[in-house]
Amino acid sequence: MAALLEVKNLEISYGDRVTVADVNFALEQGEILSIVGESGSGKTTVIRAAMGCLPGNGRISGGDVIFEGRSLLNNTADQWRAMSGTAMSMIFQDSGNMINPIRTIGSQFIDFIRRHDPAKSKSEARNKAEEMLASVNLPNVKTIMANYPFELSGGMRQRVGIAMAMTFSPKILLADEPTSALDGTTQAQIVNQIMDLRAKYNVTVIIVTHNLGLASYMSNKIMVMKNGRVTESGTRDEVIFNPKDDYTKTLLAAVPIIGSEPYYAA
Questions:
Q1: φ/ψ (deg, to 5) at 169
Q2: Is the pLDDT assigned to residue 154 strictly greater than 70?
Q3: Cβ atoms within 10 Å of 102's Cβ, excluding its own
């Protein structure tokens, strides 16, 4: 079976400086890949490159990103806009940062839906937005539609971000540390929400995280990065229970022990 998304020898540069190199992975429909590593290791840069949204003067300077058998490197701006939010969607570290603070949730959600589906009336878009908010277990969706972002908790804003990301049933969901800004209880709820969406829509997920325990719980595959390079990559069991690289072993040694077992084995 051909991979849904394949990244081959990916190299990313900012100006003349190569920041990420030799990244390779392939994912089929419904698989979950966790990219793990310390801050500055290149995790977020990889998923931004895959979605065509590198900031500033960042660019793919080598390799290829192939989606459904087609290279994305020659996408025009219009093609990227058409794909973003439909074929591929992203959940950010704090979805509140991607939402306009001076507009209500409803007005933004309706505009987002109608931009990608102009045939929908405003009323139809409102109904779809409320349906998606309810699908991520948000209560009183009509009230939330009338709320401004600052009136919602961090966990509620993340759920709004997830609802928007899943509106058009994307084939790939990119999650950039979606739980790191939340308390422990809310983190667990958001993780379970993503797992439920994977089960419901068979969406392929790439999640960026510092948390190797979380990666072990969620993933089919794990990729460990350091200093812009992949230090280890494989199935969940290969990386967790038979690590080859010293850096991976160090990360595993730092995972807390719960009872008699490390958190990643719980």
A1: 45, 60
A2: yes
A3: 7
5-97+170-265 has CATH 3.40.50.300 classification: yes
Distance CA 164, CA 139 (A): 16
Mean pLDDT across the stretch 178-207? 83
Whose tokens are 């069991």? That residue is 237
Q: Alpha-carbon Rg of the chain, whole angstroms?
A: 19
* 190, 92 Cβ separation under 8 angstroms: no
Specify the pLDDT at position 131. Answer: 95
Using pLDDT thresholds of 50, 70 and 90, give the confidence band for residue 59.
very high
Residue recorded with tokens 């990666």: 215
- 221 three-class SS: strand
Backbone φ and ψ for 181, nearest 5 degrees, come out as -95, 10
Give exposure, 137-167, as e/b (b: 16+ Cβ within 10 Å): ebeebeebbebebeebebbbbbbbbbbbbbb
Tell me phi and psi for residue 3, to 5 degrees.
-70, 145
